[in-house]
Write a structure and sequence with these properties.
Layout (H helix, E strand, L loop, with lengths): L1 E3 L11 E5 L7 H16 L3 E8 L2 H5 L12 H11 L3 E6 L2 H4 L3 H12 L2 E7 L12 H11 L2 E5 L1 H7 L3 H9 L3 H8 L4 E7 L13 E4 L11 E9 L2 E10 L10 E6 L10 E11 L7 H18 L2
Parallel strand pairs: 1-4, 2-3, 2-5, 3-4, 5-6
Antiparallel strand pairs: 7-8, 7-12, 8-11, 9-10, 9-12, 10-11
Length: 308
């Protein structure tokens, strides 16, 4: 799969099967729809193309609103779409200027002239263009003029799947990891680099890696302790992770710390991918480090019972 950042040099295929959207999380519902696009491209001996916008349009249109957290970074999204079998992901840079493009201009200049769209898959409620004037009716009215067909993704298809990015976000916010993972069709994960911390975990027999996530918009589940799987290069480990302020250790900033079982190597500067398996308990303050140590041993036992 190729990622196209600049349409100027893009050589449009003879038969482009296209869909448009942010596809945050590339969850089970997305996967079903995207697989149909790939199948249509194969059956028409064409190329499957996904058009997505980056940054997320809301970050540009509402710059002072930091409430939206995303399930996937662009790199994560690219990996997931690649697994589905797409030929191209076209990454359109969303700017304030771009937001003023009319639906007619987007259709004519981008979908037809630059990409050569012959078949377009579009959601029943999808809108595009300035003032959201582009929709399924607009596209169907223009299809004969521009020589392409429209395949509507109907409401019942989406409702029957019962999946949405919002449902997944809400599940993660309240610690319902199993539900979020079921809706995603995989384990929810974060990726970050190990940085130096205060090393207080070592003093109680639970050394942790302090993980720093680069993308501030990436959604973190609720504060608390989790059973996790951790990937480091080509190795995988079992462990438990804490998100929060470490009240017993008088932490002042929200942090992500993971303890790997049966592991005693240095990890500073390394990139870890952490998969959330199950929520263990809420973060709490203990009266002493000894009480914290006893609880962590209980957490470890429970985690080992959960993880195969």
């Amino acid at each position: 799969m190729k990622v196209v950042d600049n349409l100027t040099s893009f050589k449009k295929p003879d038969f482009s099967v296209v869909t448009i959207g942010t596809f945050d999380g590339v969850h089970r519902g997305h996967q079903i729809v995207l697989s149909k696009v790939v199948d249509a491209a194969v059956s028409n001996k064409g190329k499957s193309i996904l058009i997505t916008f980056w940054p997320h349009p809301r970050f540009i249109l509402r710059p002072n609103d930091n409430s939206l957290k995303l399930l996937s970074t662009f790199i994560e999204k690219k990996r997931l779409i690649d697994k589905i079998g797409f030929d191209y992901v076209i990454k359109l840079t969303f700017t304030s200027e771009f937001s003023h493009l009319s639906a007619e201009q987007f259709l004519s200049n981008i979908l037809i002239d630059k990409i050569g769209t012959k078949k377009l898959f579009i959601g029943y409620d999808h809108h595009f263009g300035n003032k959201r004037e582009g929709n399924i009716d607009f596209l169907q009215n223009k299809s004969d003029l521009y020589g392409f067909s429209v395949v509507e993704i109907p409401r019942q298809d989406i409702d029957n799947i019962g999946v949405s990015s919002t449902k997944i976000r809400n599940a993660l916010y309240i610690g319902k990891i199993a539900l979020a993972n079921t809706l995603l069709g995989r384990n929810y994960s974060i990726e970050g680099k190990v940085v130096h911390g205060e090393k207080k975990g070592r003093s109680i027999g639970f050394p942790t890696a302090n993980v720093q996530i680069k993308e501030t918009f990436k959604l973190l589940p609720r504060d608390g302790v989790y059973a996790v799987r951790v990937r480091r290069s080509f190795h995988e480990y079992l462990g438990m992770l804490n998100i929060g302020f470490r009240p017993t250790l008088e932490g002042s900033q929200r942090s992500i710390e993971v303890h790997l079982f049966n592991f005693d190597e240095e990890l500073y500067g390394e990139l870890l991918t952490i998969e959330f398996i199950e929520f263990i308990r809420e973060e709490q303050k203990f009266n002493s480090l000894d009480q914290l140590r006893k609880q962590l041993n209980k957490d470890k036992q429970k985690t080992l019972e959960i993880l195969p």
